[in-house]
Design goal:
Distance between the termini: 45 Å
Helix content: over 70%
CATH architecture of the largest domain: Orthogonal Bundle
CATH class of the largest domain: Mainly Alpha
Structural class: mainly alpha
Strand content: under 5%
Order of helices and strands: HHHHHHHHHHH
Number of domains: 2
Largest sheet: none
CATH topology of the largest domain: Tetracycline Repressor, domain 2
Number of strands: 0
């Protein structure tokens, strides 16, 4: 037990440093653009040496790749959780809620990828949309797995389509409206604002209601 604790602590510190690098890199990419941000600038803002940064990421491309990898890791964990749950409507509802949370937390990354498509294509040398296609090909089987958990393994095509549509609608709505959704503290402290302005919690609630409506009465969600 004592031998395991230091290893876990060290692993947690590595994970925290990796997360800080990703966060700072995303900030600098947003401020200066992907092409005009260097690893040296990322290291300077973090207050670490370039050698320390290289321990985690050898290039900016590695950092960007880690955004996608982490997103898919979270989806894989959600799929594993869903497969361990009883095939009930409650499981389908909870899975959709957790999925929406993952999408909302990844909003800044999605916006970065969208705004820097040309730079990212140029940096990976593809010159086309191969990287975007690869991301979708990685997402597609995961989408299928999530839809199967919601609709059930032997669900008819209509039910699987409705489950997939709920997932697409949820992610699309989150990404589209997140730019209009202030942080919870901003909602609490604002004296007044446009009537259509939604906080993130309210947006999440509305999107979940939509997803529930789309999956009501199908397979495991019935």
């Amino acid at each position: 037990m004592d031998a395991v604790a230091p290893a876990l602590s060290q692993s947690a510190r590595r994970g925290d440093t990796r997360g800080r690098i990703q966060h700072v890199a995303l900030e600098l990419f947003a401020e200066h653009g992907y092409e005009r941000t260097s690893l040296r600038e990322i290291a300077e803002r973090l207050g670490v040496t370039k050698a320390a940064l290289y321990y985690h990421f050898k290039s900016k491309e590695d950092i960007v790749r880690s955004f996608t990898e982490d997103y898919f890791d979270r989806l894989d964990a959600l799929i594993a959780w869903g497969r361990d749950q009883p095939p009930t409507a409650r499981t389908g509802h909870e899975l959709l809620d957790r999925y929406i949370g993952i999408v909302m937390e990844g909003n800044e990354v999605f916006r970065f990828l969208e705004r820097n498509q040309a730079s990212l294509r140029s940096s990976d040398g593809s010159g086309d949309s191969d990287s975007g296609k690869q991301r979708f090909e990685q997402f597609r089987p995961r989408l299928g797995a999530l839809a199967e958990i919601i609709a059930g393994p032997d669900a008819p095509p209509r039910s699987r389509i409705r489950a997939a549509a709920a997932l697409f609608a949820a992610s699309g709505a989150c990404i589209f409206f997140m730019s209009d959704a202030p942080a919870p503290d901003a909602v609490r402290t604002a004296a007044a604002g446009p009537p259509q302005l939604l906080g993130r919690d309210e947006l999440r609630k509305i999107v979940l209601e939509l997803a529930d409506d789309l999956t009501r009465g199908i397979g495991a969600a019935s």
